[in-house]
Amino acid sequence: PPIRPDPRLTTSSDLRRSTRCIHMTAVDTARAAEAERSAPTPLARIVRPGEGNRVRAFGNEIEFMLSGDQTGESLTVGLASVPAGNGPPPHVHYSEDELFLILEGEYRIYLNGDWTTVGPGTVVYLPRGSVHTFQVAGDKPGRHWTLQTPSGFERYFAQAGELLSAPGKPDLARLEAITKEYGAEIVQYAP
């Protein structure tokens, strides 16, 4: 149907402003439609607890609630469960930003060269290029939401998990290669 100006407009000036807005909307819609045709459209979805894909690596478990396959490669969302005293090796992501929303437990976060202790309700934003790690402090396990944009972390975590769960001593050179394939690096830090 044709787009009609709002009948509540009373002056020609109001009508001109309305027409300009309508025109801008049509241009933006055309661009959105073009982008939609060139990329797969993710479907809106609801994922309940237990319906995600559970993956173990580095002694932690993440239930990936949304993966790149489900979000058009724009976002990964997972619920991490981390035993007391555990955390990943220090690392840096070059390809994605990361966000933690701490739900349970006390965490020690290494960021920008310093350790900081945080608890439930804390938000930790890690833009790409930030050297970081964490460790669950105390004697209680930790849980946090982990979000990465764009997606891909879920595939890395699954490959690392397969490698680390294989019988025998882990192939650390292969782990380093997988990490680099996904645009990240395991690094050393000054404790």
| Lateral arrangement of strands in the main beta sheet | 1-2-3-10-5-8
Radius of gyration: 23 Å
State the order of secondary-structure elements, H for helix, E for strand: HEEHEEEEEEEEHHE
| Residue windows where pLDDT falls under 50 for at least 5 positions | 1-29
- In total, how many beta strands? 11
Structural class: alpha+beta
> What spatial form do the alpha-carbon principal axes imply?
globular
Mean pLDDT: 83
User: What is the percentage of strand-forming residues?
Assistant: 25-35%
Number of helices: 4
Approximate helicity band: 25-40%
Oligomeric form of this entry?
single chain
- Quote the distance from N terminus to C terminus: 65 Å
Query: Main beta sheet, described?
Result: 6 strands, antiparallel
